[in-house]
Amino acid sequence: MTSWHADHAWLGDAPASDVLITADRGRFTSVTPGVPRPPHAERLRGLTLPGLANAHSHAFHRALRGRTHAGRGTFWTWREQMYAVADRLTPARYLDLARAVFAEMALAGVTCVGEFHYLHHGPGGKPYDDPNEMGTALAEAAAQAGIRITLLDTCYLTASVGGDPLDGPALRFGDGSAAAWAARVSTFNVDPHARLGAAVHSVRAVPPSQMPEIVAWADRHDAPLHVHLSEQRAENEATLAAHGRTPTALLHDAGALGPRTTVVHATHLTSADVGMLGSTRTHACFCPTTERDLGDGIGPAADLAAAGAPLCVGSDSHAVIDLLEEARAVELHERLRTEQRGHFGPPFLVRAATSHTALGWDDAGSITPGARADLVTVTLDSPRTAGIDPAGLIFAATAADVTDVVVDGARIVQDGRHLRIDVARELREAIACLS
Fold first, then answer.
1. In whole angstroms, how far apart are CA 60 and each of 118, 173, 366?
2. Which segments within 106-232 are labelled E, that is strand?
3. Is 316 a catalytic residue?
4. Which in 85, 129, 350, 353 has the greatest CB count within 10 A?
5. pLDDT tens across 244-270, in order?
6. Is 265 a catalytic residue?
């Protein structure tokens, strides 16, 4: 039995004070507010939140931080730089890089990551002896960093909406068909800290005729299904020209929308698209720091939420790894889009940052008896947070204010330091190998 006493803890939709929390075998056993700290309980100074869930990650994109911002460029020119990094990765290099990236996430309070994984094969598209070796490296990286992972194994078949074949570094992404993708993924074995999900990379990368196979696999395995959706106007225009349908409508036709599905970005939607996503209770994952970095635009978060689509957040390309910033940016970007304030309050934004539902971990994301024992403590004594009302922390704190992290009852971060990994050194060395 482990005991913590939190100065403040986020219970339900608000902070409570003097909260005694106990856990056994990785799950909370009791949560009692308003009690003095007993001598045996470890004190958590500040505001303690449930573990944060990073719903959308591409681990290897972290190698591009600070290297792809010169000049104007576009999403498409940035993508060429991303392909160049992908082409230099081996399973061993990917393990080293991803371990450091996931450890950086732990320092930021992330206790579970959804890794949107499409770098499957060796150079030229030749499968490894173990065809899931790259995915295995990612799962092992998360274990070594001390966080859980949902490996969203991604089907990626074509280079354009028109069905152009993959070439160059992108050959490493493809399995040839959705059936071949499903056969490969079905041989993947995951450890208890990991779960396996499915992903349609985008309507650019998976023809409509291939989508039902992926949906059926996710249905059979009761697995999450993720997809990039309408990130770029060019994607919408090409899809309308080729199919006479929006990307959202194509997914709807393929049976891909629903409560187990998460669409990522959802930036350029029609009102009909919003209605389809809301009525099917499809999750929408916003990644504001990446969307602003790439100049993608601002998606209709308030419209989607009002229509019934649950919202979650991710750090995507890792221009920044800070789920507190991603969550508050959902509100702040909406203010820019509408020129009005007050769309989403702190309770909504904390739920968006801590909900694990889109990643298939329904037993995580709250400090309640029976839930997974994940805790993230944020200091109230930094220059950013000193003097704030704890209820408004989401609008003040950054990842740098995270001091302590517990995952499944095990301490991973203490006093702002990862207990297993020298994160800065490992990031520096792993990225140097790819330069």
1. 11, 14, 29
2. 110-117, 148-155, 194-200, 225-229
3. yes
4. 353
5. 999 999 999 999 999 999 999 999 999
6. yes
